[in-house]
Amino acid sequence: MNVLVINCGSSSLKYQFINSDTEEVMAKGLCERIGIDGSRISYQPKGADKEELETPMPDHTKAVALVIEKLTNKETGVVKSLEEIDAVGHRIVHGGEKFATSVVINDEVMKAIEECNDLAPLHNPANLIGINACKALMPNVPMVAVFDTAFHQTMPSKAYLYGIPYEYYEKYKVRRYGFHGTSHDFVSNEAAKFLGKDRKDLKIIVCHLGNGASVSAVMNGKSVDTSMGLTPLEGLIMGTRSGDLDPAIVTFLASKLNVSAEEVLNILNKKSGVQGLSGISSDFRDLEKAFNEGNERAKETLETYCYHVAKYIGAYAAAMNGVDVIAYTAGVGENTAFVRQRVSEYLTYLGTDVDPEKNKLRGETVVLSSPGSKCVTMIVPTNEELAICRETVRLVK
Ligand code: ADP
Prior knowledge:
The chain is α/β, with parallel strands linked by helices. The protein has helices at residues 60-72, 107-115, 124-137, 157-160, 166-172, 181-194, 248-257, 261-270, 273-278, 284-292, 296-319, 330-335, 337-345, 384-396, and strands spanning 2-8, 13-19, 24-32, 40-45, 51-54, 87-92, 103-104, 143-147, 203-209, 213-219, 222-226, 325-329, 366-367, 376-379.
């Protein structure tokens, strides 16, 4: 089957076109600045150069039309016609408590996704726009919704309830949902497969460390806790997000800065994290460079970041009463040796380590801990698009 995987943001659309039989990416690209001046599309067919084109995209329907035009282009396309697109898989950020698994999209599903809009006001409406745009151009192609929150719906209430009046959970559904579920699911599965074990027999901690970052505890194949909460702001220190803090800081800063609580949240989402702490960058490549040049703020930032990751691993080892596998993934987790090394120094009590030589590897599935370690530490590259493709095939076949 040929599956078009779509990840729609408010002004962007990331896509991959995957042959599900070979799991090869036949083409991929990105539409940016949709509905804004200077919109552009990139398109990269397998084994060929990336094309970039600035062209008007007043809305997402136009963006999807351009993607289809690229995929079916006589010279550079990878299929002959629209008929060769067998299914579309959509990444949907928030499924609330309504979706514990991926689903085939129909009117009822769209309505239920819309009902989750106030839980993810920036993301879900954009995801729906993407679905509608595809529906308009490919009315007969089956579509599947794959939710970032679904994998974590197995968390017990002790993990998802906050210590606030219960009625806010009942009335407004204020609880921990967790995100990056597609990645936590995929990575824990791949880790078990690589080790030749059944995920159902393992206690796995997945550290998805990208620009956004979250940790999850996956016990016997199910997510039992995760660090992101009602929104992706909670948990680890991230690229630009603060992660955990005392909620009183919001009104304290609002008063000191003479701004609204909304504006403080904006600061916590966009100007905090390692970017805010270091004053250098949200990108770990820049931070490592500054650290190697002796920059003290970069050092303090990286130390703080690693300390928080280690604390979450400790917490989830407690949640599962043990841990068999710690898996690092996403941009930072797969590439930044320093972080894996430093975090592992806090974890020798769990019976794991990170071999400095093996730790030089990046971007491939590899065991980093010494042979015979009680707990295996490893890198497992994530692939959310492939996970969405597999889910789509599972549901439409
Ligand atoms: P997201 O999908 O959340 O945007 P990614 O998983 O792509 O994020 O991670 C992006 C981050 O990964 C970058 O900001 C950077 O900090 C880090 N990163 C990516 N490549 C490298 C690399 N080669 N070395 C160190 N860090 C890297």
